[in-house]
Amino acid sequence: MSENFETIAIRTQTERSSHKEHSTAIYLTSSYKFDDAEEMRALFANEKEGNVYSRYSNPNTSEFIEKMCLLEGAEDGFATATGMASIFTTFGAFLKSGDHIVSSRSVFGSTHQLLTNVFSKWGVTFDYADLDKPQDWEGLIKLNTKIIFVETPSNPGIDIIDLEFLAGLAKKHNVLFVVDNCFATPYLQQPIKLGAHISIHSATKYIDGQGRVLGGIILGSKDLITEVMNFARHSGPSLSPFNAWILSKSLETLAVRMDRHCENALKVAEYLEGHEQVKLVKYPFLKSHPQYEIAKKQMKQGGGIVTVVVKNGVEGARKFMDGLKMFSISANLADTRSIATHPATSTHSKLTEEQRLEVGIEQGTVRLSIGLEHIDDILKDIEGALNS
After folding, report:
1. Model pTM?
2. DSSP 8-state symbol, 152
3. What are the CB-based long-range contacts (under 8 Å, 24+) for 133-138?
4. Which residues are recorded as modified (N6-(pyridoxal phosphate)lysine) (predicted)?
5. How far is CA 87 from the centre of its chain?
6. Domain residues of the chain, as ranges?
7. What is the three-class DSSP state of 113?
8. CA triplet 372, 204, 296: central angle to 5 degrees?
9. CATH node for 5-250
10. Beta strands in the chain, from DSSP E residues, in sequence order
11. pLDDT tens profile 303-331
């Protein structure tokens, strides 16, 4: 098998059936037939590999997992129904009452809710650290710290931290290092190769890339994924076979899509940086980004998300978004279609104003997910909205 990303993503698939199909079939089955009673016993006893029940495994989810493992350099994985299911399952598998998490402050709104309102009820505590203050992280690690969790690039602040630095801290203090790699995808960033123990994706985003299905995946060593599977088999956050089939097929075009997303996003960021209606632009591969050198070191390209702060606060943001003609106003991102989101009143609305400001979300902040349309049309739409 080739070592090239694109070839692995396209050529990895399940064994062909007697029908000799060129494209993987969809295995829409909830259960499986056993040859005899002994085979059934052996499979349930984990003495033999095979499919038992689609809540546990399915040929389509297995293909998707195998591809993602190869692309990100992981030994094993478990696919879930959503990205948030992956985060919840990871926390649920490794945390117990009395444990502690050190997390990046800038995390997705639902992850914040898990930390503050869900796991806190079960006796798990946490401390937030800032991505732009790496000197503060080690001081927050306690004797009961079990996980270092980070989202980089962050949503929507596009802040970045050195993953090798955090991997060193995790090793020094013998804690689990978990990375939400959603914005980068395995094409742009491979946290496990940089020392992370677990890498998580919301496959709903760039892995699908067309706004069709929900999905998530947890990647790591065989030992760690065994712990994840033991929890997930009984809590049931499994990915559907149909969605797994969609996501596995989508991986075939991930590289070419990300190349165009990144190319378009960089041009948008460069255009916005010089606009008189813009207060601030954040994009990893802009030289003005505070962590530009780190981004260049650990990412292949800058990704497809540009965060812009327009002038005149929430009114300026609303005027800009309402002036967009081609962009979709949506809470999603990473679509072929360009999308604009106002985090303060949508994805991060459950945070207080103080909490939002701490992670760089102002009232004028707009998250732009730059799609695959022609760059001239994208820039024309942005220009018209800013000048309206």
Report:
1. 0.96
2. S
3. 134/161, 134/162, 134/165, 134/166, 137/102, 137/166, 137/169, 138/169, 138/173
4. 205
5. 10
6. 5-250, 254-387
7. helix
8. 60
9. 3.40.640.10
10. 76-80, 100-104, 125-129, 145-151, 176-180, 198-202, 216-220, 278-282, 305-310, 328-329, 339-341, 365-369
11. 999 999 999 999 999 999 999 999 999 99
